[in-house]
Amino acid sequence: MAQHTRKGAQFQALTANRLSDGIVVYLTADDRWSESLQEAEVAEGKEAAEALLARAEPSVADNTVVEPYLFEVAKEADGIRAASVRETIRQAGPTVRLDLGKQAELPGVHS
Description:
Blueprint: E1 3-4, E2 11-18, E3 24-27, E4 33-34, E5 43-44, H1 46-54, H2 57-61, E6 65-76, E7 79-82, H3 85-92
Parallel strand pairs: 1-6
Antiparallel strand pairs: 2-3, 2-5, 2-6, 3-4, 6-7
């Protein structure tokens, strides 16, 4: 499993893509996969991060998610924030016009 974080990262979360629809998801403290980064469990330190990554293995084995990996996050007063541009983009969704692609089919997106 990949790791998209710097070696000395203090706080990390675990992300993957849900296999049924490709949506970005985050592992929670109760081993659910949430679409909200704010619900993600945050691991502090290397050992806690490795344990968090290991908890994703059953979800990979049962084809719930694909390609789980750790990424650096920052804890702020208003919640959790992805430390990298890559993860900020993954959290927000595609960087294409809202009238193109999958989001074009969603009701209320263009109003």
